[in-house]
Write a structure and sequence with these properties.
With 188 residues, the protein is mostly beta strands. It is built from no helices and 18 strands.
Length: 188
């Protein structure tokens, strides 16, 4: 039963090598709604990389997380407010190493979470059978009033701490969908 609407980000803090599993519920609490794909055969839940790329001549605030314009698999946190110049920093690949551009200093937080660090399935046992990072098919339609469990397994292969607390590096999205609403007549 869906009891809480996901209004905030689900933040991961993952220290050390290992796996964590959890379950989230997907659906609408409104029984008069039906979700359908616009052009695909199935409604798809899709994992996306979402770290912002470093930008020249831009203002950054403490805690912002970026990756180099040419991704190197690491994420970097701003450790002081400032403005970058036109030159991209020389991004170190050692955790906790620092680099600067203009008046902005970045610290290497370690390997960034990637979509292929995540398995999604419609059952816990299904987590062993899916390809990491792949989209999850939710069906041709989803009726409101019922939620479906979506199981997640996050694998951290890095022995260094990884955190995407201030700027998430992976997000979920749907393929193009439409919500159809049934209009009720008479007394409910």
């Amino acid at each position: 039963m869906m009891t809480i609407t996901a209004a905030n980000l689900y933040q991961l803090n993952f220290n050390g090598v290992g796996k964590t599993e959890f379950r989230l519920y997907f659906g609408s609490p409104h029984s008069h709604e039906t979700l359908r794909p616009v052009s695909d055969q199935q409604i798809m839940l899709i994992l996306n990389s979402r770290l912002k790329k470093w930008q020249p001549n831009s203002g950054y605030g403490f805690g912002n997380i970026v990756e180099p314009t040419k991704a190197n698999g690491y994420m970097y946190k701003v450790i002081g407010n400032g403005r970058t110049d036109l030159n991209e920093p020389e991004w170190g690949t050692e955790p906790d190493s620092q680099c600067s551009s203009g008046s902005v200093t970045f610290i290497n937080l370690g390997a960034k979470f990637q979509p292929n660090d995540i398995n999604m399935a419609l059952s816990r046992s299904g987590l062993d059978k899916v390809t990491a990072g792949s989209a999850l098919q939710l069906g041709e339609q989803l009726k409101g009033g019922k939620s479906i469990p979506v199981y997640f397994r996050i694998t951290n292969s890095s022995s260094n701490k990884r955190s995407d607390r201030s700027d998430p590096s992976v997000s979920l999205s749907l393929n193009a969908t439409i919500t159809e609403t049934i209009a009720h007549t008479g007394t409910l």
